Amino acid sequence: MSVALAEASIDESSQERPQLPPSMVERMTLILDAFPQRTSRLTLEEVARATHLPRSTAHRILDQLVRLQWLEHTSFGYSLGRRAIQLGGGGDDAIELRSAASPFLHTLMLRTGLTVHLATLDGGHVRYLDKLGGRFATSVPSRVGGHAPAHSTALGKAMLAWLHPEDVEERMGCALSRMTESTIVDVNAFHQEMHRIRSSRGLAFEQGECFEDIACVAAAIEAPEGPIAAISLVGDPSTQLERVGPLVLDAARQVSLALFPSLDAMRPRRARDSARGVTRL
User: Fold this and answer.
1) CATH top class, domain 92-275
2) What fold is seen in the domain 2-87?
3) Separation CA 9–CA 188 (nearest Å)
4) Where does the chain hold its CATH 3.30.450.40 domain(s)?
5) Whose CB has fewer CB within 10 Å in the chain, the N or C terminal residue?
6) Residue partners of 45: CB distance under 8 A and separation at least 6
7) pTM of the predicted model, to two decimals?
C-alpha cells in the first residue's frame, strides 16, 4: 500500500512540475520566447518563472546569450540584443519611435534651421534612425542607419548619462576610442561628464568630439525603465547651442509622453532619486 501511495505521489509531482527540455538549444529558445516584444525588460526571476527553468540554469544561459549579443543586460533587466533584433527584422519599434518623433523633429528643424538627429543606443554606439536637413546638413557626415561611438556624440552621452556606471563601462569597455583631439578618452573624465549632464537636466553637449567642426546638443527620450533614444541639434562650432538646448529638452519630453502617456506621474519619484544620486530616468 505504501509503495502504491509513493508511486502515486511521484506521478502527481511529475505532472505538477513541467519537464525541463533536454537540449541547450531548446532552453535558449524558451528564454528568447519569454520576451514578447522588442521593448520587453525581464529580471532573472521573471525569466526563470516564465520558462520554469531553475534560477541557476536560467542565469547561466542568460549570461551566454548576453555574451553572444542575443540579449542585453543592464540595471533595468534583460532585453533582446542586437542579434535577436536583426534576425527578427525588429523594425516595428523603430517605426513607432520615428513616427512619434517625426512632428517634433520637423518643428525643431523649422524653428532652428539646424540639422536634427534621432538615434538609439546599439551597444557602445549610437545608431541613427532619422536625419532632417537644415542648412548645415550636407556638412554632417552622419547617415540614417549609420553608427558612431556613443562616448563621442551628444546623442550617446545624453543616453549613457542615465545608465549606472557599471552599465556604461560594460558598453564602452575599458578604452574610449579617440575620434578627434577633443574626444574624451579618459574614463574618469567621462564619468564626470555624465554627472554634469545629469546635473543639467539631461542636456548633453559635444564640440568636435566625433567630427571636426561640428557641435551638437542632445537630450534623451525616456521610457519608464530608462532612455530608449535621443534627439540632437547639429551646427558648426559657432552655433549658440545653449540657446536651443531647452527646445531639444522639450522635444524629447514630448516624444516620451507620446510613447508613454503615464510617464509624467513618475517624474516626482525620479526627481527624488536624482537628488539622492540614483542615476535612473
Assistant:
1) alpha beta
2) Arc Repressor Mutant, subunit A (1.10.10)
3) 60
4) 92-275
5) N
6) 55
7) 0.65
